[in-house]
Amino acid sequence: MIAGILGVPESDFARFRDWAAVIAAAINLPVSGLQEFVQRADQTTSELVEYLNWIVTERRREPRDDLISSLIAAEASEGKINEKELISTLILLLVAGHETTVNLIGNGTYALLQHPDQWKALVGDPSLARNVTEELLRYDSPVKMTTRMAMEDVEIVGNRVRTGTEVIFALGSANRDLRAFEAADRLDICREVGRIMSFGLGIHFCLGAPLARMEGEIAFQTLTREAPGLRLGATQPDWRAGLVLRGLQSLPVTLQ
Ligand code: HEM
């Protein structure tokens, strides 16, 4: 989806998915072998930059109705970003817009299949898909944490944070805060979800939140319509090991 919006030719979607996965794996702060992940991501980034330089040259020559052409126009006529920023923005959009949404759909499907009554309710009423997406974003946050650097001494809930200290915000944990959500550990696709932390907060709030919500809604609606007989398989799913992103490696299912 994100590669399409950027304007990458469909024949290159699979390469983009692989590049995004390698870079995301390093950003995910794997619990072991970080050095190896970073080396692979460096190598992949070089390939990706080369490809993006090529496509930017193409779009400069012949603009199209796509995001790459719009960003080039911002660079050329409005002088808002320079060439280096253009390429790094494209990489950010690709990586931030891919793995996260994949995890929303994967984690969300797993959560629904673990709660057959909730799955059945969505199969019976696909118009619930928007609220389902919001609840699934809350229940199993695709991004587990974000960080901020304190620019001055502050106090956060009784804890003193000194200037220059990096603070980790556990987004998934905040989404299960009993002070904010009634019976927070319960999946309830009909609840009035309220304010979730899955997309962060403040000036860096996720740029792609509306797109991600739309993708989730369409995905869960389509899945329940096309495969209402989906059930969990006999073997346990595999989770990717990492500190930042929460996502499945595989989800064995059966179709009844
Ligand atoms: C379910 C899907 C997604 C989740 C859970 C998610 C989550 C997040 C989070 C937690 C942040 C950091 C916010 C902060 O530090 O306060 C973020 C930032 C960002 N996201 Fe997403 N995201 C998703 C989808 C997308 C998509 C589809 C795109 C692209 C179209 C995107 C683009 C970005 C960008 C560009 C930023 C950086 C914003 C900034 O630093 O100003 N995200 N996202």
Topology readout:
Layout: H1 2-6, H2 13-27, H3 34-61, H4 67-76, H5 83-114, H6 116-124, H7 129-139, E1 145-149, E2 154-156, E3 159-161, E4 166-170, H8 171-174, H9 209-226, E5 230-232, E6 238-239, E7 248-250, E8 253-255
Antiparallel strand pairs: 1-4, 2-3, 5-8, 6-7
The structure holds protoporphyrin IX containing FE.
Protoporphyrin IX containing FE binds next to helix 5 and helix 9.
Top keywords for this entry?
single chain, 256 residues, mainly alpha, Cytochrome p450, two-stranded antiparallel sheet, 9 helices, 52% helix, 11% strand, globular, binds protoporphyrin IX containing FE
Describe this structure in words.
The protein is mostly helical. It has one domain (2-255): Cytochrome P450 (Cytochrome p450, Orthogonal Bundle), CATH 1.10.630. It has helices at 2-6, 13-27, 34-61, 67-76, 83-114, 116-124, 129-139, 171-174, 209-226, and strands spanning 145-149, 154-156, 159-161, 166-170, 230-232, 238-239, 248-250, 253-255. The protein has a two-stranded antiparallel sheet. Strands 2-3 form a two-stranded antiparallel sheet. A two-stranded antiparallel ribbon has the order 5-8. The longest helix is centred in the middle third of the chain and has 32 residues, at 83-114. The two termini are 29 Å apart. The mean pLDDT is 94. Bound molecules: protoporphyrin IX containing FE (HEM). Protoporphyrin IX containing FE binds next to helix 5 and helix 9.
